[in-house]
Amino acid sequence: MKAPLENYHVRMQRVLDHIDQHLDDDLGLEALSGVAAFSKYHFHRQFTSTFGLSVHRYVQLARMKRASYRLAYRDAQSVTDIAMDAGYDAPDAFARAFRQRFGQSPSSFRKSPEWEPWLAALGPLDNARSKLMQKTFSHEDVTIRDVAPTPVAIMEHRGDPATIGDTIQRFIAWRKAAGLSSPKTSPIFNVFRSERRPASPAEYRMDLCAGTDCPIGPNDEGVSAGFIPGGRCAVLRVVGNTDNLEPAALYLYRDWLPASGEEARDFPLYCQRLAFLPEVPEHETVAELFLPLK
């Protein structure tokens, strides 16, 4: 029984990957049922029963998620182009659908995103993806590296994690102005200084960092110079669904660390973002999680 179920999940996962890779293409029932190698007469019900929402709604939400990332973080792309990429023939139709979904017009969202309704609207999409993306890790997935110290520019996020998008938006703008917009030449890190869901949202703390050895001059954004210390680290690579690194962190702390005989060093868990939305499809996002060791 296990093998047929695993095969079924593999075929459904193939559909989700195909949607991610082909958001600009035909994603109707006939095309997607062919990707899954299921009967087109039953695929709609199979998809809905597996993921809790219809194929059409899943595709709409995936396109809207990509569009919202582009609006918030890619100001060089026009709203009209983003609307066309989201599958709409006219900006007005896109604006109506966007407002209905997120409670803001695209132009308003671009200027000042309201992240809490955005998170709520995309909840069904994230829940659907998580049904087949429960990651399991093994001891062999973890490597130990000697990491060199990395000088970084730091923007601190303090407060409700639902508003992290605002801090990211500000940090991207600052990086562009400072000439640090390319992750190939200026690596991107997140330093997790609190639990992902602290008892009070006000206690949430995370540092956004960009690698640079250039001096950090006075600025209105509160960006300061710092460094990520060198030393031995346990490293766990995560591919796909890297918005939520909690399962990987739990594995490192709960399973790997006690069995390894290692001891954690006095520096927080951090990650390096190697590939991320909207530059790559969601299932191709990559992050490496670093647990500093003594």
Please summarize what this structure is.
This protein has 294 residues and is α+β, with helices and mostly antiparallel strands. It is built from 10 helices and 8 strands.
| Shape by Cα distribution | globular
| Main sheet: strand order | 1-6-8-7-3-4-2-5
- Number-wise, the strands total 8
Main pleated-sheet profile: 8 strands, antiparallel
Provide the residue-averaged pLDDT: 90
Regions with pLDDT < 50 over 5+ consecutive residues?
A: none
* Strand coverage percent: 15-25%
How does the SSE layout of this entry go?
Elements (H helix, E strand, L loop, with lengths): L1 H20 L7 H8 L3 H12 L3 H19 L5 H7 L5 H12 L3 H6 L3 H17 L10 E6 L2 E9 L5 H15 L9 E5 L12 E7 L12 E5 L2 E9 L6 H15 L9 E6 L10 E7 L2
Structure explained in plain terms:
- The structure is a single chain.
- Strands 1-6-8-7-3-4-2-5 form an eight-stranded antiparallel β-sheet, covered by helices on one side.
- With 294 residues, the protein is α+β, with helices and mostly antiparallel strands.
- The protein starts with a helix and ends with a strand.
- It is globular, with a radius of gyration of 21 Å.
- Helices cover 45% and strands 18% of the residues.
- α1 packs across α2, α4 (55-73) crosses α8 and α5 packs across α6.
